[in-house]
Amino acid sequence: MSAGRRTLGFSWPALVALAALAAPRVALHDLDVVPEGTVVAALLAVGPPLCWVAAVLWRRPPRPFLTIVVIGALYGVFLAAGHQVFWDSSLGMDAPGLAGLEPGAREALLRAAAVMSSLVTGAMVGVIAGGVAVLLDRVRPAPPRRAGRFLAKRRSDPRIPSTGSLFTTDGCREKLPQSPQ
After folding, report:
1. pTM listed for this prediction
2. CB 140 within 8 A of CB 98
3. pLDDT value for 85
4. Among the four residues 27, 57, 111, 130, which has the most C-beta atoms within 10 Å?
5. Which is higher by pLDDT, 78 or 163?
6. 23: buried, middle or exposed (CB in 10 Å: 19+, 13-18, 0-12)?
7. Long-range Cβ pairs for the range 131-138 (8 Å, 24+)
8. Cβ distance 49 to 128 under 8 Å?
9. What dihedral do alpha carbons 114, 54, 44, 124 form, nearest 10°?
């Protein structure tokens, strides 16, 4: 098991897949396919983080907040890439305060700012969704313990003595004084 999976509770491909749930919104928004203020736009914005929270509550990773922040950061990468791909159709505008710059420098500056903004946005969505997940996890009852899983681990781990060797009394009988009969 990788260190990421132990800490985050999911494999890296699963984390990327969860982040990719939000990727369609980037394209649909940048291409003006889904207008802002509609129910579909709201579902595309809120649905993926709700799926992240549901996945974390179902899987119960050791660090749910960190897991969702990582998913949000990965979403930020999707967001940045999407904005760069659809730059000309949506964001390729002239900034009024940058009119004195060369067009190439202006575009490079705006693209860099869009990348940074996307990464911060993704991380912040992760922080908010992670906070929701932690709060919901605290009010939810703890899962029942499964004794069979624990005992199977004890039997397969050579560092843990078996219960048979802990509770034998064969050696003690020889050392105890015998009562007269």
Report:
1. 0.71
2. no
3. 87
4. 130
5. 78
6. middle
7. 131/65, 132/49, 132/53, 133/52, 133/53, 133/56, 133/57, 133/64, 133/65, 133/68, 134/64, 134/65, 136/53, 136/57, 137/56, 137/57, 137/60, 137/64
8. yes
9. -20
CB distance 62 to 1 below 8 Å: no
127, two tokens: 């922080």
Give the chain's length.
181
Place of tokens 């020889």: 174
Integer angstrom CA distances of residue 111 from 32, 77, 81, 121, 156 = 19, 14, 10, 15, 55
* Run of H or E residues at 35: none
pLDDT top residue among 172 and 70: 70
